[in-house]
Amino acid sequence: MKADPSEQLRLLDLQALDTRLDQLEHRRHSMPELAEIAALDKELAHLRNLLVAAETQLSDLERERARAETDVEQVRTRVRRDRDRMDSGRITNSKELVELSSELESLARRQSVLEDVELEVMERIEVSSAEHQRVSVDVAAVEEKRAAAAGRRDAVLAEVDGEAALTTSAREAVVRDIGPQLLALYDKVRASSGGLGAAELKARRCQGCRLELNTVDLSTFRDAAPDEVLRCEECRRILVRTPESGL
Questions:
Q1: What is the average pLDDT across 116-142?
Q2: CB neighbours of 91 closer than 8 A, spacing ≥ 6?
Q3: Among 2-11, 94-103, 175-184, which stretch is predicted with the lowest mean pLDDT?
Q4: Distance, CA of 164 to CA of 17 (rounded, Å)
């Protein structure tokens, strides 16, 4: 392939810009904030599950307390009713009075049991509420950390996007100085050579594979016309000659 030497030199500029774009893309996907956010998301998911469990338990306990309070109040109502009957003096039958007194004793025992149940439920609610509060605080703390990490991520992405836009614009300007055939070869080689399509021939060494030219290749390149497009015999990248090539 033939190409004006000035076009070949522009390949080095193009390669530098493409390398920078690759670096920016790598930075976009490898910034530490991404791993940090992923870890925080995992922690948040776990904490939110704990929070749901705590809320469910607290809700169940509140219903249990309501039932206990209702049971206690029902017994208290019966006690007040029976005591009022006994204190009213309307009951004169001794047997009925004995039965009523016995019922009051039974209700008192029942009330004591139910009040103990109510107290135990309230203690469990206190423990559950403390756990719910603790998990809520943990969730808020991790959410704050994630928001901070997301802010740093967005700042880096904005910086990367800004530089990438400028670099892409500069690349488009360079591409206009390169013929379509040479550009197509460069793109093909770059795609198959780890992103490096063109390399400088410097001090008789390919800057792509870093190998020094052997005597035969050196002689061949020295005799090549200025517009001939050279390829490294080792890595097959386009070799661009400069005053520092050592030919």
A1: 95
A2: 85, 97, 100
A3: 94-103
A4: 10
Parallel, antiparallel, or unpaired for β 238-241 and 230-231? antiparallel
* Burial (CB count within 10 angstroms: exposed 0-12, middle 13-18, buried 19+), residue 30: exposed
| Calpha distance 199→197 (Å, rounded) | 7
Q: What is the pTM of this model?
A: 0.74
CA distance 123 to 100: 34
Q: What is the pLDDT of residues 75-121, one digit of tens each?
A: 999 888 878 877 777 777 777 777 878 888 899 999 999 999 999 99
The SS3 assignment for 95 reads helix
- CA-nearest of 123, 117, 146 to 47 is 146
**How far apart (Å, rounded) are the C-alpha atoms in residues 239 and 3?**
12
Question: What is the rounded average pLDDT of the residues 2-29?
Answer: 96
Query: In this structure, are residues 27 and 97 in contact, taking their beta carbons and an 8 Å threshold?
Result: no
List the domains of the chain with CATH numbers: 5-19+179-241 (no CATH), 31-175 (1.10.287.1700)
- Return the higher-pLDDT residue of 194 and 92: 194
